[in-house]
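Weekly sync notes, structure subgroup
Attendees: PM, AL, DS (notes)

Item 1: joint prediction request from the bench team. They want all two components modeled as one assembly rather than separately. Inputs as received:
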Amino acid sequence: KQEVTQIPAALSVPEGENLVLNCSFTDSAIYNLQWFRQDPGKGLTSLLLIQSSQREQTSGRLNASLDKSSGRSTLYIAASQPGDSATYLCAASGSARQLTFGSGTQLTVLP
Amino acid sequence: GAGVSQSPSNKVTEKGKDVELRCDPISGHTALYWYRQRLGQGLEFLIYFQGNSAPDKSGLPSDRFSAERTGESVSTLTIQRTQQEDSAVYLCASSLMGSEQFFGPGTRLTVL
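Output from the run, pasted for the record:
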């Protein structure tokens, strides 16, 4: 059974700092890995999808990497802004396609 | 609208009542998923529909939970004889086969 872990559980940084969020998964036979952000009381917003054959994906200030062999993914956020404050979730998709989610990293960017 | 929509946004019910939650996926998306998020906990997979194939019900927590999907459109999640532990936000997502999942805003269910 796939298990997804995210470290740290919470992170507070000053505005402008670059930061890395970590995600690890136990079963390397994933189909893809997806990063989301969740704002309080809101649904999930998809940030990046990395297919199992890919090593990284970039969107604006966000860069996500995937290392299947070590069971790890990272989300890099450049030049953080207060608007980036949210909970960031990573989720791994297996052959059955449903997502297994980590418990999230709650990010606070201080102005 | 272009996104996944869910209704109602909030539902308060009494223990023992049945509830129906609705999801309208993005047009053309063949896959539809239901998840739930209980307070302070992570998201749990409930059920997955892909085209006309039999749904993957492996995440349903009990036989009080069921879901239907009409073709490749709307889906309804039904919870019978609701219990307090069913209180959660129920999220629906849709995708093209094997692709990025897009989530709706969720239905917050409160069972008194």
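Discussion: Chain B touches chain A through 23 residues (CB under 8 Å).
Action: AL to compare against the crosslinking data before next sync.
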